[in-house]
## 1
Amino acid sequence: MNSLALSMPKKILVIEDDEVARELMRMALEKSGYQVTTAEDGVQGYDTAIFLRPDLIVTDIRMPAADGIHVVRRVRDTPLLEETPILVITAFGDGHATFSLQQGANAFEPKPLDPQSFLATVESLLSERNTLRAA
C-alpha cells in the first residue's frame, strides 16, 4: 500500500433512519477524522455502498425499506463488498445483536450509543481490516 493511501481518511458509510442518531454518528466520526457518507435506509445504504466502497459500514437494524440484517446479508453476498467490516447498531437487545453477528456483522454497539465505546469499536474494526490487507 502506498503512503498516499495510508494518509487518506477512511471512508465510513452510516445507514440510519433516525436523523438525529445519524447526524450524531456523522459528527462524532468526522471529528475523529473519518470521511462520512450517510443513508436513510437499507436500500439507499446498499446502493451507496456499491458506489462508495467504504472502509466500514455502520448500520442500524430496524429501518424502513430494508433493515440492517438485509444490508449485512447483501454486503456479504456482494464480491465487491464482502470483506467490508460491518458495525450494527441496535436498541433491541442482545438477541438482535447476536443474530446480526450470525448473519455476518463484525461487531455491534447498543443504543443509546456511548461515544467512546462506539469510536473505539470503529477504530478496532478499521485496524483489523488494515492488518488483514497488509498480510
## 2
Amino acid sequence: MKNKTNFDWDSFESDAIKRLMDGDELTGENGILTPLIQRLLQASLDG
C-alpha cells in the first residue's frame, strides 16, 4: 500500500477527543470519524 500523504494521528486524536467532549456525532457528514473512514475507504479503492 502506498502512503501518499502523512496522517497526523496526534492532531486527529486531540481533535476527536475535544469533539467527543463537546457532544459531536461520531459519524455522518460532519462526524468525528468521517475523515478517517473516508481515508480508509479511499486507500482500499486505490489498492
